[in-house]
Prior knowledge:
Number of helices: 9
GO molecular function: 1-deoxy-D-xylulose-5-phosphate reductoisomerase activity; manganese ion binding; NADPH binding
Shape: globular
Domain DXP reductoisomerase C-terminal: 87-209
Largest sheet: none
Pathway: Isoprenoid biosynthesis; isopentenyl diphosphate biosynthesis via DXP pathway; isopentenyl diphosphate from 1-deoxy-D-xylulose 5-phosphate: step 1/6
EC number: 1.1.1.267
Keywords: Metal-binding, Oxidoreductase
Order of helices and strands: HHHHHHHHH
Low-confidence stretches: none
Structural class: mainly alpha
Amino acid sequence: MKILPADSEHSAIFQCIQGLPEGALRLIILTASGGAFRDWPVEKLKEVRVADALKHPNWNMEVIEAHYLFGAEYDNTDIDSSVLAQMGWPDMRLPILYSMSWPDRVYCSEITWPRLDLCKLGSLTFKAPDNVKYPSVDLAYAAGRAGGTMTGVLSAANEKAVEMFIDEKISYLDIFKVVELTSDKHQAELVASPSLEEIIHYDLWAREYAASLQQSVF
């Protein structure tokens, strides 16, 4: 069964690997904008308000999704020095359209979607992730390497923590703390090859445990 990704990052990877022989992919580079706070110093992040964050949502599960969708290892090196890139405007309609039309591409007029003109764009700047400002990146890699129920626990705890932040029950920086504490608590009960029932069980457990931290820790 072929899975056609509709998420923008994974649709880009899927488009790049079309025609590649099995085993040819060794390194996936996922790009992200860094969000509205990428230029903020770490100490200022404690001032982030809900309204600020909702204007520029960020997602942190892409690396785990890419691992399971494309079989790329978390620690890997590339075969040669060539890089395949898929670029476009940040518009979710494009990857969704491609997943619906694959293996064909639907023509779109300039009125519907302006073409990406690299000459007009001018320049692109790439930087390595700031793991001090974004500690969740390391946490996601650790969960991915642990495997089993840990990735589901990470995702569920993150969703609950974000919910508590939106409800103004915890601060922006507390989101990471909630996810980290929930993941640490789960270490002793991690199931390496879980059944569907176990996945659902620990998803619910993670949400309940994350919620309990509001009273006991913060």
